[in-house]
Amino acid sequence: MGEFDLIRRHLTGLGAARADVAVGVGDDAAVVRPPPGHELVLTTDLLLEGVHFLPGMDPEGLGWKVIAVSLSDLAAMGAEPAWATLTLSLPGADEAWLAAFARGVDACARAHGVAVVGGDTVRGPPAAGAQLCGLVPEGAALRRKGARPGDMLCVTGTPGDAAAGLALARGELEGLPEAHARFLRARLERPAPRVGAGIAARGLARAAIDVSDGLLADLGHLLEADGLGARVEVAALPCSAALAAAPPGRRLAWQLGGGDDYELLLAVAPERLAALREAVAAAGVPLAAIGRVEAAPGIRCVDAAGRAVEPPAAGWNHFAEEGDGG
Amino acid sequence: MGEFDLIRRHLTGLGAARADVAVGVGDDAAVVRPPPGHELVLTTDLLLEGVHFLPGMDPEGLGWKVIAVSLSDLAAMGAEPAWATLTLSLPGADEAWLAAFARGVDACARAHGVAVVGGDTVRGPPAAGAQLCGLVPEGAALRRKGARPGDMLCVTGTPGDAAAGLALARGELEGLPEAHARFLRARLERPAPRVGAGIAARGLARAAIDVSDGLLADLGHLLEADGLGARVEVAALPCSAALAAAPPGRRLAWQLGGGDDYELLLAVAPERLAALREAVAAAGVPLAAIGRVEAAPGIRCVDAAGRAVEPPAAGWNHFAEEGDGG
What CATH number has the domain spanning A152-310? Predict the structure, then answer.
């Protein structure tokens, strides 16, 4: 079997079966049918070996992650995922690698109702990308823009876990109980995009962004959209049991600056906080209030007594990391 | 100005201004509004240095080409282009390079009514990709599948020019008059996707594919979709004045096997050939009948006297070249 047939065999028919796919993999392009009354939400991401994933990364995890990263962008807009195309660059066609990668793509796409309808595979340095197309009712998309002074800032899940997972993968974090180590590695390698939470936040949150570059960096992007600032209470930052079990030295740096979490950061009017919390909880996702939007630009971190805390230097930064910011 | 600001500055606002773009570059994802009664046509392509373009390629040409290649997939489906996202991998942010690349993207997108609504830029080996989203009236998309024995095979433009342009770029073809050399290089570096011809062929052609891997290879893909074969008259192959001026040695290999032409190959019922020719001509695109679909699998090349011609070995083949074939 030639390389081309191998690739076609493994990368055809991945993800959910959707009745709105008229033409899937195998033609010059895919044809899909959007439902009436909806807008399309479009995003693209490219993950490179050595930049976004470690050389030798488990291909099944990579397949999961390449879909999850773009799903997180859709989640931040409150969109319901629908269709994906894949981009794959490989030095050669290794059947076991392709089969594992395809399993990861399939699992993540299927779990979120996404049909993989096309793609492009080329010979080159290891890289994988996904282009996701989601749906929102007209005018209902969440935006980065829209926060107002006095809004509460909330975050889903437990940011910082992925950065701790990366430290584990690099051998920089040792002695953790096995279950905690597994949890942190999974948070890095099998991120759970907060799709249900994003949909639940439509009409409740005033602004949203996904936390992929680190909590403070992404909060900065959200505030920048309206020229605002914020106060963040570090004692209110949610912390997983696994992260709490790690030596405390780098914990705050991971929580505030660690990338790759794919949580959602939401700004919500105080009177809607309870409703938002309930809606997000109904989607099975924890939500924590961590601070407030303020009129004065800049982000001020404070401890439980209200004293200023200097945020530790961010631990993670890749080139032009802002997803669809261009 | 930081790298990130540089990139944002150059890659924002490219292409046509479209009233159906609700959210463009600068949020987690873009939001666009499809018109009622239409299906979406989705395609993605990734061009790598050393595989799809020569190291040191003029960045403006690369910007044009990355959009043009995906537009050609839309053309083959008869779709009207609408929105694009970009993928860009660069070793560093060189402002002159970025500005030129952006000019090329902008020119090609604008010429075809496409708004560039988002993208992802990463640090890595030189590569550029585009994801295009087009529109077709419900059920009107052209497919690879659909040809029948007896159908005429037609091709737009003059396949083989791009392969001659590549030979020129590699210094393998010398002594051509300057105007011809310029024409062939432009056919390689500034391909004109046959968008108008694809739209014109809706309802007239029975099957379509774009010629990106070589005429015989792509004809093979089209025939394979229905288990058919074809007879190709090599004397009927259209030839540009520039290609006719090149030494004849490799001409037939370029015409039948050269890649990167981005022409359309169409199968049409004989009684509709005149109407198709007229519709495609109205879009400003030349069309030539080059053979017929036959029931027996396999492609038979014949000369003007009907004698079998052995097609020369294809000159171009990259890994898994089939666009959205997976």
Answer: 3.90.650.10
d(CA B295, CA B202): 24
Interval A196-220 mean pLDDT: 97
Give the separation between CA B206 and CA B317, rounded to whole angstroms: 27
For residue A264, give the nearest of A129, A73, A113, A133 by alpha carbon: A73
Give this prediction's pTM. 0.93
Q: Cβ–Cβ of B32/A43 closer than 8 Å?
A: no
| Interface predicted TM-score (ipTM) | 0.93
**Strands laid side by side in the B38-48 sheet:** A21-23, A30-32, B38-48, B127-137, B80-90, B115-123
The full set of domain ranges for chain B reads: 3-137, 152-313
The 10 Å Cβ neighbour count of residue A139 is 9
Residue B248, class by beta-carbon neighbours within 10 Å (0-12 exposed, 13-18 middle, 19+ buried)? Answer: exposed
Q: Which of B12, B25, B28 to mutate to test the interface with A (most CBs of A within 10 A)?
A: B28
Note the CATH number of domain B3-137: 3.30.1330.10
Find the mean pLDDT for residues B78-94. Answer: 94
Q: Which of residues 136-165 of B touch A (CB under 8 A)?
A: 136, 138-139, 141, 143-145
For A187, phi and psi rounded to 5 degrees?
-65, -30
